[in-house]
């Protein structure tokens, strides 16, 4: 039998990409500009953040 390691194997076990610095920058922008929150609150939810603390901060805003 011929076995070839596919880069797609185990994909379901991988963590999604995240950028904690981008999350921090977004939260800072939301705190500095209330209109920015209005723009992202339609599609962004606390569970979308990789860091649970960032999600709680977003929810508190």
Through-space gap between termini: 57 Å
What structural class should be given to the helix and strand makeup? mainly alpha
Strand/helix succession: HHH
Largest sheet: none
Strand content: under 5%
Number of strands: 0
Shape: elongated
Which stretches are low in confidence, meaning pLDDT under 50 for 5 or more residues running?
none
Q: What is the count of helical runs?
A: 3
Rg value: 17 Å
Structure write-up:
The model has no long low-confidence stretch (mean pLDDT 86). The N and C termini lie far apart (57 Å). It contains 3 helices and no strands. The protein is an all-alpha fold. It has a domain at 19-60. It has helices spanning 20-32, 34-40, 52-60.
Quick synopsis:
By secondary structure, this protein is mainly α.
Q: What attributes does this structure have?
A:
61 residues; mainly alpha; 3 helices; elongated
Task: List the topology elements.
Layout lengths: L19 H13 L1 H7 L11 H9 L1
Helix pairs in contact: 1-2
């Amino acid at each position: 039998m011929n076995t070839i390691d596919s880069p797609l194997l185990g994909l379901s076990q991988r963590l999604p990409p995240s950028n904690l610095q981008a999350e921090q920058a977004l939260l800072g922008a939301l705190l500095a500009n209330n209109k920015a929150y209005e723009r992202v609150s339609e599609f962004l939810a606390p569970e979308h953040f990789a860091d649970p603390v960032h999600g709680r901060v977003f929810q508190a805003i």
